[in-house]
């Protein structure tokens, strides 16, 4: 049984619907939830609930605001087969005309509970994050919020659920839920609050392994793997050692833990949308089938587990007050996501290097790639970083859309990586190397160790905690970077770390890995354009040569200097601009019409890298140095 505590300083706004909820809900016992995944391979999850209720008007809600997703994206349109009975009678129901996530009914006299049955139609494609494709014939992830209802307006801490689960024959499972009692393919879990249930997904599959990590560390940690093949879960020894070290490095960084045990749930399937969703005692990590085996995929997903793990401290234990809501119907406020996600991005990337999930050189290439795309983010000319956090709920689902650079997306992740890196270098300089952001993490997220617990914070709390580590005008430091409108990314951390961002014709390893995985061609730093391998223009950077020539996303390049378009022909043409006529002639299709474009450019191929600044100490190298002994080659 887990106890989540809402600190008294939490400030939340209840939704209008929550305010208008009828009589207080005083249940006679826990809500029973039975989920049948035996048809998960057909993308149908069946669920049945027994919900104690008393006669009179009654409203049930489907979870709308999903913790960690920071937006109202509970998959209501995938809910089907809704049917209610009470006292043996079918109940008429109607949806609320304003809140699409609420269902009203009347409990008849004499009834003591509502029986609710529903199906969750798990999508077969698309993203949808945790509610994206979550099942194949071999593996499935169950996020409980997809398959349950709860009495509207009741705090999720105040509701107790007993969950029952039926798996496809022969499947095994991993979860942070307590006290699983398995009989064949049927499992019953111990009673937990609705908060904990939604915070504790189940990973199950035919090819399943649960591997204890860092057995010298308490509380216990497990890496639970389920994938689409036996090979997919056959983790190489050096990869496993890096995740053992991740557990130790996290302890050295934070100095305390706030969970009773931790399960990394990692599903490996090409049919899932790659994503990670943090939970307090586990994380739902979704990656391609060969993520543990393929060098490009390992690099591209190097920060996935470290990031989601770091959220147990930064996001679950410490959470912005505006994101700590009493139930799943209350709106969240994203203004501090540059801490919740941004600091986690910094810590996740940091831990990936300190633990050896990736090499220090690979970290620098990833940092260079990130700094470069942010330094070409045209949207910063109109949208400050703060607005990407405040508007997060409108931005997550535009990934990959046309005019990506001009829109700006969820930059509070990557741009905050740069900002927290700079904060780390400032602390180290201000204190003559005696303190670092590690000390901030230890004080803000650390001792004493506890079970799962929530402590909220505000912007002022962050400033105060930073000042306690190193006196500085942190309010101005953060506000200057959060509210800045202009072309340049905050590169002070790279420069303060003794490095600088440069461009040359040597491909960037991180970008090359991403391009090979996604089938893309990154020409963002030369022509100002990103392409698919078939010549599709995915995006152009306003102000750069491709955009200036009139090219736009949605077009498809047909010929380059008269030659049929191919990745090789594109690279050859850009490379040749160094010695050529100063332009490239492109013909592109635009919705069925062909047109010629002259791209004025003479810089050759350009890719970002970090190089040392002569005479300056390598502070970045200091920052990335492991805190725990390295026992095997990196
Ligand atoms: Zn995150």
In DSSP terms, counting alpha (H) and pi (I) runs of 4 or more, how many helices? 20
User: Mean of the pLDDT scores?
Assistant: 94
The fraction of residues assigned to DSSP E strands is 25-35%
> What is the strand tally?
32
Task: Say what oligomer this is.
Answer: single chain
Helix content: 25-40%
Rg over CA atoms: 26 Å
Unique bound compounds? zinc ion
Residue stretches low in confidence (pLDDT < 50, at least 5 long) are: 1-19
What summary fits the major beta sheet?
9 strands, mixed
Helix vs. strand class: alpha+beta
Principal-axis shape: globular
Span from first to last CA? 39 Å
Chain-wise SSE layout:
Elements: H1 16-19, E1 31-36, E2 44-52, E3 56-61, E4 79-86, E5 89-90, E6 93-95, E7 102-107, E8 113-121, E9 139-142, E10 150-151, E11 160-166, E12 172-175, E13 181-183, E14 186-188, E15 192-193, H2 194-198, E16 202-205, E17 207-213, E18 221-227, H3 237-254, E19 262-268, E20 275-278, E21 282-287, H4 295-300, H5 304-310, E22 318-320, H6 337-340, H7 342-354, H8 360-375, H9 385-390, H10 392-395, H11 404-407, H12 414-430, H13 437-445, E23 455-457, H14 459-469, H15 474-482, H16 492-496, E24 499-504, H17 509-518, E25 520-523, E26 529-532, E27 537-540, H18 545-549, E28 556-560, E29 563-564, H19 567-576, E30 583-590, E31 593-600, E32 607-612, H20 619-624
Parallel strand pairs: 1-11, 18-19, 19-21, 22-23
Antiparallel strand pairs: 1-2, 2-8, 3-7, 3-10, 4-5, 4-8, 6-7, 9-16, 11-14, 11-15, 12-16, 13-14, 17-18, 20-21, 24-32, 25-26, 26-27, 28-29, 28-30, 30-31
Helix pairs in contact: 5-7, 7-12, 13-14
The structure holds zinc ion.
């Amino acid at each position: 049984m887990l106890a989540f505590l809402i600190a008294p300083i939490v400030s939340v706004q209840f939704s209008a619907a929550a305010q208008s909820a009828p009589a207080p809900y005083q249940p006679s016992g826990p809500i029973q939830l039975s989920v049948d995944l035996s048809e998960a391979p057909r993308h149908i999850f069946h669920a049945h609930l027994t919900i104690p209720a008393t006669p009179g008007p009654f409203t049930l809600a489907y979870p709308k605001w999903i913790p960690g997703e920071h937006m109202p994206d509970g998959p209501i349109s995938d809910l089907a087969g809704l049917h209610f009975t009470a006292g043996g009678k079918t109940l008429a129901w109607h949806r609320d005309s304003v809140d699409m996530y609420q269902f009203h009914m009347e409990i008849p006299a004499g009834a003591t509970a509502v029986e609710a049955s529903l199906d969750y139609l798990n999508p077969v494609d698309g993203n949808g994050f945790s509610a994206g494709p979550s099942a194949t014939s071999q593996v499935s992830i169950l996020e409980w919020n997809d398959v349950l209802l709860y009495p509207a307006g009741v705090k999720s801490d105040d509701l107790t659920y007993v969950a029952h689960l039926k798996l496809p024959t022969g499947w095994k499972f991993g979860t942070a839920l307590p006290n699983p009692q398995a009989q064949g393919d049927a499992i019953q879990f111990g009673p937990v609050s609705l908060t904990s249930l939604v915070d504790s997904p189940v990973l199950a599959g035919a090819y399943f392994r649960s591997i204890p990590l860092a057995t010298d560390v308490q509380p216990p940690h497990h890496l639970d793997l389920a994938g689409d093949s036996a090979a997919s879960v056959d983790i190489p020894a050096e990869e496993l050692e890096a995740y053992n070290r991740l557990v130790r490095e996290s302890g050295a960084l934070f100095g305390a833990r706030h969970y009773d045990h931790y399960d990394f749930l990692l599903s490996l399937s090409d049919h899932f949308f790659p994503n990670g969703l943090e939970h307090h005692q586990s994380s739902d990590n979704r990656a391609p089938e060969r993520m543990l085996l393929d060098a490009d995929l390992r690099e591209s997903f190097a920060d996935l587990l470290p990031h989601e793990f770091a959220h147990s401290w930064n996001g679950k234990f410490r959470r912005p007050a505006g994101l700590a809501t009493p139930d799943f119907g209350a709106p969240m406020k994203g203004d501090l996501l540059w801490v919740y996600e941004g600091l986690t991005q910094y810590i996740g990337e940091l831990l990936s290097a300190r633990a050896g999930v990736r090499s220090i050189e690979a970290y620098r290439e990833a940092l260079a790639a990130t700094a470069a795309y942010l330094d070409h983010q045209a949207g910063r000319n109109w949208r400050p970083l703060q607005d990407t956090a405040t508007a997060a709920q409108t931005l997550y689902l535009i990934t990959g859309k046309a005019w990506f650079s001009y829109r700006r997306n969820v930059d509070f992740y990557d741009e905050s990586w740069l900002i927290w890196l700079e904060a780390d270098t400032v602390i180290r300089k201000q204190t003559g190397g005696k303190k670092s952001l590690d000390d901030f993490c230890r004080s803000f997220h650390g001792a004493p160790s506890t079970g799962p617990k929530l402590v909220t914070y505000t912007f002022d709390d962050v400033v105060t905690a930073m000042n306690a580590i190193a006196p500085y005008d942190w309010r101005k430091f953060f506000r200057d970077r959060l509210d800045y409108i202009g072309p340049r990314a905050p590169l002070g951390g790279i420069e303060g770390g003794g490095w600088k961002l440069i461009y040359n014709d040597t491909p960037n390893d991180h970008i090359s890995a991403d391009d090979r995985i996604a089938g893309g061609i990154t020409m963002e730093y030369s022509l100002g354009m990103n392409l698919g391998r078939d010549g599709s223009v995915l995006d152009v950077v306003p102000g750069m040569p491709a955009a200036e020539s009139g090219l736009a996303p949605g077009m498809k390049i047909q010929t380059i200097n008269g030659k049929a378009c191919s990745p090789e022909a594109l690279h050859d043409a850009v490379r040749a601009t160094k010695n050529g006529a100063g332009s490239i002639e492109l013909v592109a299709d635009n919705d069925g019409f062909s047109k010629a474009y002259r791209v004025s450019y003479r810089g050759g191929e350009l890719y970002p890298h970090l190089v040392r600044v002569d005479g300056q100490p390598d502070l970045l190298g200091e920052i990335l140095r492991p805190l725990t002994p390295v026992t095997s080659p990196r």
